[in-house]
């Protein structure tokens, strides 16, 4: 079989991914694909009579249709919530550089996390590939779901692991630096024996980058230890197995597309209702009618008759109601926080948002788990302990509610030197006090005061600054104690 061969599950979902691509691209992409708006039978018959002369019928029909950007707006709102999350990252000392330089184009782990979450929300699938550059530094590359064309699993040491992963890539032609024309190549990862190999082929299946094993290399670029697995993770909306997961925004995209199709009929009907068609009959051959309008008068002769064929629009209201139903379905299916008609209490809105965050919750967890696994692969590949790797994200999406009185008490405690400025800042940005032991909090206070040039007079316990001035003495209450005093007061 050729290198372009695709997995059957890829074939089953490619149209859904294309639909999502169009939905996110916007109205131009939707209207650019005739499959999104089938031609009415009357226009089909008209084009059979004169395809070029009657093409304007479908063009006008499409131009009047309206596509609402619910999917794109919903994705933007969800990413706004995700962008507030702060990953917890712990890496071996030799991999610290990855935190700020993790992707193939030079961005850090936080940006990688946001990219994975965004694509998982929109397509339900993100292939993540671990690689090592020429300097021996690991980095990560992601592919669009539609470009991860083939994969396979088999028994590897008693477990079902990847044995094949093929990706479509587009490389710019080098002969013209101003051109954006690309040619297609295929990068493959495959298991050969107990070692992972990679290669790149053109569309004819010819090797353009020779097969080579992946793993740790020594002097002379000799392989010391080959990778015993394919360093590819398929991030999904529910888990990180190679199987294709559901697309969280697919139901919304389908509702938006159906609303677009209904809008073509709706706005065409409104157009026809406001532009009645004149008719004439019984004219003599000598009578010519070339002008119509409120300033023109027709001489119909002794036997002529005229009138208007008016579009009654009996079904217009039904179409408008159907469009409204599609909007309700889209808002119900989506994760976007949107105002609805009528009044809604704060608790009801919070409950609705929590329901909408259920999908985001699983996506954030699986995305963080995928990145952590990729970092473990990178650590093992470069000779570090994978157990030293941590990448976690707490999926807490509700906008923090900061109590002004608590905040004021915390500020006083910071000024008094009884809690750290970091504690104050965390409450200000998250609405929550950190869960820290007393000794850890005391250490933070000490570090902050030392960096500010403030010393502790050990003779009497009073604090003095570098110039001998006395600092305000605190009461020794903890951060949580200050917060409790404020809430109780």
Structure description:
- The strands form six sheets. The protein has a five-stranded antiparallel β-sheet with strand order 4-5-6-7-8, with no helix packed on it. The protein has a three-stranded antiparallel β-sheet with strand order 3-2-11. The protein has a two-stranded antiparallel ribbon with strand order 1-14.
- It has 13 helices and 16 strands.
- A hairpin with a 2-residue loop joins strand 6 and strand 7.
- The termini are far apart.
- Helix 4 (55-64) packs across helix 7 (250-274), helix 7 runs antiparallel to helix 8 (316-333) and helix 10 (404-416) crosses helix 13 (479-488).
- 40% of the residues lie in helices and 19% in strands.
- Residues 335-344 and 456-489 have low confidence and may be disordered.
- It is α+β, with helices and mostly antiparallel strands.
- Among the domains are: 27-66 and 254-276 and 310-333, no CATH class; 404-488, no CATH class.
- Residues 444-489 are annotated as: Disordered.
- Residues 472-489 have a biased composition (Low complexity).
- InterPro entries: DUF4055.
- Residues 248-382 form the DUF4055 domain.
- This is DUF4055 domain-containing protein.
């Amino acid at each position: 079989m050729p290198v372009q061969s695709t997995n059957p599950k890829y074939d089953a979902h490619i149209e859904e991914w294309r639909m999502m691509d169009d939905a996110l691209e916007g109205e131009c992409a939707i209207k650019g694909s005739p499959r999104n708006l089938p031609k009415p039978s009357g226009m089909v018959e008209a084009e059979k009579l004169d395809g070029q002369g009657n093409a304007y019928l479908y063009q006008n029909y499409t131009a009047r249709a309206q596509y609402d950007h619910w999917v794109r707006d919903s994705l933007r709102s969800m990413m706004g919530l995700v962008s507030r999350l702060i990953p917890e990252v712990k890496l071996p000392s030799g991999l610290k550089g990855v935190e700020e330089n993790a992707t193939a184009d030079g961005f850090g782990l936080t940006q990688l996390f946001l990219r994975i979450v965004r694509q998982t929300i929109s397509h339900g699938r993100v292939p993540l590939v671990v690689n090592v550059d020429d300097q021996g530094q690991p980095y990560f590359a992601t592919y669009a779901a539609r470009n991860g064309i083939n994969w396979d699993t088999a028994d590897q040491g008693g477990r079902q692991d990847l044995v094949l992963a093929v990706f479509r890539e587009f490389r710019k032609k080098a002969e013209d630096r101003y051109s954006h024309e690309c040619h297609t190549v295929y990068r493959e990862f495959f298991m050969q024996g107990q070692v992972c190999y990679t290669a790149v082929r053109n569309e004819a299946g010819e090797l353009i980058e020779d097969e080579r094993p992946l793993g740790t290399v020594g002097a002379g670029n000799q392989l010391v230890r080959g990778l015993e697995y394919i360093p590819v993770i398929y991030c999904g909306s529910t888990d990180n197995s190679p199987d294709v997961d559901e697309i969280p925004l697919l139901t919304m995209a389908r509702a938006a597309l159906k609303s677009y199709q209904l809008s073509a009929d709706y706005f065409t009907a409104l157009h026809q209702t406001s532009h009645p068609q004149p008719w004439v009959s019984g004219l003599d051959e000598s009578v010519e009618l070339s002008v119509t309008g409120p300033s023109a008068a027709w001489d119909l002769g002794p036997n002529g008759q005229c009138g208007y064929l008016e579009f009654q629009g009996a079904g217009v209201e039904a179409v408008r109601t159907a469009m409204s139903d599609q909007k309700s379905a889209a808002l119900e299916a989506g994760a976007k926080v949107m105002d609805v008609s009528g009044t809604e209490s704060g608790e009801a809105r919070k409950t609705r948002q929590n329901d909408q965050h259920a999908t985001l919750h699983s996506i954030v967890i699986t995305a963080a788990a995928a990145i952590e696994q990729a970092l473990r692969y990178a650590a093992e590949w470069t000779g570090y302990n994978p157990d030293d790797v941590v990448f976690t994200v707490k999926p807490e999406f509700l906008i923090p509610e900061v109590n002004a009185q608590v905040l004021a008490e915390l500020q006083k405690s910071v000024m008094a030197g009884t809690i750290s400025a970091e504690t104050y800042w965390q409450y200000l940005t998250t609405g929550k006090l950190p869960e820290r032991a007393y000794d850890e909090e005391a250490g933070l206070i000490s570090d902050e005061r030392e960096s500010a040039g403030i010393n502790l007079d050990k003779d009497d316990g009073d604090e003095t600054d570098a110039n001998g001035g006395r600092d305000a003495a605190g009461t020794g209450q903890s951060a949580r104690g200050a917060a409790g005093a404020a809430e109780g007061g």
